[in-house]
Input
Amino acid sequence: MLWETMIQWAPVVLRKCFDAVWQVTLPWMITILLLMLLRPFLLRRYSVKCYLNCMRIMMGLLIMSMTAYSGNAYWQIPGPDVLLSHELEVSSAQREEMPVEAPASGENLAQQQETSVMQTQSQQQTTETPVPTAKPGKQTLPELYQIWAVGMALFLLFHLVQYGRMQWYLHKGREKITDPVLLESYQQFHKEMPILIRKPRIYCHRGLPSSICVGLFRKTIYVDTQDRDLEEMKWVLRHELYHCDNGDMLGRWVFLVAQSMHWFNPLMYWLIDQLEWSTELECDAKVVDGADLQARKAYSMAILNSIREGNRKRARLSTAFVENRQTLEKRLEAIVDMQQKKPGRIISFLVTGMVIFCFTFVGCTPVESQQTTEAVQTDLTRELYNARTPYIGGASDVGKILGLLSLPNGLTYHEEGMELFTDEGSPFGAKQHLMFTEATTEAEKQALLSNTDQLERNAYLFLALVDNADFLEYKIQDTPTTESVTFHFDRQMAEKYYGDIDLRSFTSDFDTFAAFVEELNILFDCPFTETLETAGRKNWVENYQTAMELVQNISAEMPLQGDFAAWADQMRQSENYAQLVALGGDALIYCLMQMPGGTDTESYVTMLAADELAYGSRRDGVSFDETPEEWYQVYCALDSQYAVPFYKGLEQEYAQMPEAEYLSLSKEAARSRVTSKETAVQAVYKALSAYEEEDTLNGHELVVFAPLIMDVAETEDTLQVCCVVGDDRYRMNRVGNQGYCLLNEGGSRVPARLDFVKEQGEWKLEEIHWAKDGSGYAPSIKEMAPNEEVAQKMIGFDGKDMTCLLYDNLIQYMNVTDTSYMVYDMGYKTEDLQQELCQFILLA
Output
């Protein structure tokens, strides 16, 4: 079963590789053509090392671009399958869904309707195991990526077989060197090359037409005779040792793999020939470096004598002492050329820039609008930071700050302008006079008067930028009900968000101030620009619910009975099933969350749909010989990522994490984080880790837990902690092109009291007292609590605090494990709670 599933995945992996190769083909051809134009100039003015480095840089960037290619481009290059089969393109477009990604400044988690979708900051998530998407069940033309894969396999097979035959031939006919003078010369040459840590072996093979160097990890030099003139042999040995010193064998393996992936590109063959020829020229240049004309002629004669002994026969993955006769003339000219040439370091940088430009221009997603938005906000933040002033009495400076702070739509400046309060003995501050615009309706006026978030945001920025200001007031003239309304904001009001932190400390440097501005924009939901978006896909909940209804309808209309294969094939022809599969990844999420299921009709419908959505093809009904539970086990067996326990084994990593301050997290929740440095808190986490039995979880389960601590009573030998223990249980699965996701399966919130005793300097759990009948049984909570005040806190705990704390712990878990998952939370949340949680997660 596992083997069959791996076979189903092979086309998906090959197609992704082919797509990456195809998308970089055009910029790669442009780059090679540019090099062909520059070749005569480079070889005439600069050293051969410069020319060789340019080609090595090109090859390295080619491999990097294929690995990191994002799938989007300024030039959208249609693939061969699309060019040959328009029907395949249309069908794929109708059946595949692409998720909407949101711009993130940190770990993003947003709730939409009755759910939340979270994704941590990452440099963009790279899924280790490609996940297939839905493909049409019938195609009119063959998949050309299969032809590419066969060509690549044949290309590699040909050269590997050739290399293997050569190695067998060399091993069979080799003999040890017996000439002591030759061995002494070889030893001396090796000492002159300190880079070679391990001396290459040397043998004689009289069946070779010339000397060669082979071996990737254990390099070996073979000379074709021991009877050659000693002076000529020295030239030969020095040349082959430089091949070893340069690492040319590793380079040839890398070039072979790259060429095999681009076997269809004729320009690649020209580039490989140039690379091999240039490596010989580079070794020649090192051999004759500093030699006079007479020595260069002697080296040239050694090459000519080697040619006279016979034609060259060598495998691809070796280095030979001679080149073919077509390039011999240019090679000999380069050897005797004593003209000093430039090293060409600047040219190498220019070529690197040229290659990067070609690949970037074709392989990147346009981000002009996003960059423009970020630039606008950054420029305004910079202007505010530069406008900071120590004195409230500077009218021009204060006026500039107030002018930079944007007003809500519908408000504008009143003719009275601003007032400054600078009398000694009274609080220093400013008052800004505002009025409604003519276009503002009565309803909009009432809304502006009831929501002062943007004005409050402006006030805190003002108090951070003006050192000796104590307050800021906004007076709105001519309101619908009275002549004017004044809104007062002072430093004491900011304490509910920042506690004892002085707002002026946020202007210590620009980066700190920019972070402060971003926090306020999120906290009050009023960015400097109108482009801030929440994360998540707004329609996934609706699709999830639609998938549930479709599965139920299918099960009701076509219950499982009789022959399974016939039922499966008939069921998958229904309209409801077609609609289910068309939902794509959202339907796969629903199906996976029903796994492993049972043996009822709904379980088998979800198994068949999940199989088609996950693997991108539809199997015949007769090929299904597993239950839904067995199918899910095989599906999970292919995972390359596994979830490590939330707490056990990560204690040190959490201890080293800094304790961040979030504006919308209560003091109780902030104290209860998994990154808390408080000994009592860590003792509770350790006890809960044992209680949750994290050791028994498999790699597809994750339990995130947190104690919302209400009271801590500590003596020298005892510790008593009253808290509300919350946990969220997640299942980790691959979900389409979103990669690995965490699917929330539910959780619990139960008040508890944990009793500890001290043993050998550490707190050891003695007993956990849980609230009876869950969290709603007040008498048992009052019985365990030390007093009425703590009992009331445990009974009426804030559900939002607990949810934020659990989300924060999940974010810290992904930070310390260096992972990035999309999280689907199916728990019910009111619309107001969703908005509050969105705000917290953006801040976190």
